[in-house]
Automatic annotation (TrEMBL):
Positions of region (Disordered): 238-297
Signal peptide annotation: 1-27
Ranges of biased composition (kind: Low complexity): 246-281
Keywords, alphabetical: Membrane, Signal, Transmembrane, Transmembrane helix
SUPFAM superfamilies according to UniProt: Soluble quinoprotein glucose dehydrogenase
Protein name: WD40 repeat domain-containing protein
Domain of life from the UniProt record: Bacteria
Transmembrane segments: 301-321
Biased composition (Acidic residues): 282-291
Length: 323
């Protein structure tokens, strides 16, 4: 299937004006608050319309709902979360980063739910058939097959069959060469077109033939961007610190990203304050405990001082009585 038949739709205004908690709406996209930037992975949940992001705290087991600001947490002790994917009403978290190629296996977590709070999960272990690799892209096809795209000198697209084992090691097998500098990827709604955010831009590839279809060359964007696809094949791309929205092109094109205006000090304070309401709740509690302890210590010092004065006064009285 060619890209021109993918049925890409122009992003509606409603999506661009999402009301966010730790994220704030920008004029032409979604601006990520400092607490969650950079975004290393994104996934769109078709049923609910939620955009999930893995940000700076993903390795601590924290995933954020971009629409509501709610947080989902999980254990599992991830090492280097690099991507998210959504499949069959479940959110997958890919702990696949390995810049030194030193991990004996990587892990993909599948959350039991994306309800706010701590959630249980399933964990799937994977090894590369040809040795350890660093990767930043993880995708699930319409058939449920798993794909990882590696980085480095010899980047490749690796495949694992649907329904991986939860009790045995699963194997990732190389099926094709990958473009240079892939930082994230996602399947379009047709189930056969893979969109990869690469060093060049967004490259669309036929996942049956592995032939390139069309390229959106991106100029002026930050490095290491993430990508997700919405309900109508609208593309979310960015995360460092802004998430932009675009559509799938029907032919090769070039997109130039204009630098964002530097925010004023007062403007930058607002997103930070908003971000601290939910993600930094524990920090806020710590600050309250610290500020509350100072008056207590001051009271102790006053009491000691009064005791010393009383002691001196008692000594004076005793001296007068004896003399």
């Amino acid at each position: 299937m060619s890209i021109s038949r993918c049925g890409a739709a122009v992003l509606t205004a409603g999506v661009g004006l999402i009301c966010l908690a730790p994220l704030t709406a920008a004029a032409d996209g979604i601006e990520v608050a400092d607490a969650d930037a950079p975004v290393v992975g994104m996934a769109y949940a078709p049923g609910s319309g939620d955009l999930w992001i893995a940000g700076a705290r993903a390795d601590d087991g924290i995933i954020v709902n971009a629409e509501t600001g709610d947080e989902v947490t999980f254990g599992g002790d991830p090492v280097s979360v690099q991507a998210l994917a959504w499949s069959s009403s479940r959110l997958y978290i890919a702990d696949i980063g390995d810049p030194d190629a030193s991990r004996d296996h990587v892990v993909v977590f599948r959350l039991a739910s994306t309800q706010t709070g701590r959630q249980t999960y399933n964990a799937f272990d994977f090894q590369y058939a040809d040795g350890a690799r660093d990767a930043k892209a993880f995708m699930i096809s319409a058939r449920g097959n798993l794909y990882v795209v590696t980085d480095g000198d010899d980047p490749g697209i690796y495949y694992a069959a649907a329904q991986p084992s939860r009790t045995a090691m699963n194997t990732l097998t190389r099926v094709a060469d990958a473009p240079d500098g892939v930082t994230d990827g996602v399947f379009l709604k047709d189930g056969s077109t893979m969109a990869l955010r690469t060093k060049v831009g967004i490259e669309y590839i036929d996942a049956f033939t592995w032939e390139p279809l069309v390229t959106d060359t991106i100029v002026g964007a930050p490095d290491a961007e993430s990508i997700a696809v919405g309900a109508n094949d609208e593309i979310y791309v960015g995360g460092n610190p802004e998430i932009r929205t675009t559509e799938v092109p029907s032919s090769d094109t070039t997109t130039t990203i204009e630098p964002s205006a530097s925010p004023s000090p007062s403007a930058s304070a607002s997103p930070s304050a908003s971000a601290s309401q939910s993600p930094a709740a524990d920090d806020a509690e710590d600050e309250e405990e610290d500020s509350g302890s100072s008056p207590t210590r001051t009271g102790t010092y006053v009491a000691i001082g009064l005791a010393a004065l009383l002691s001196v006064a008692a000594g004076v009285v005793t001296w007068f009585i004896r003399n």
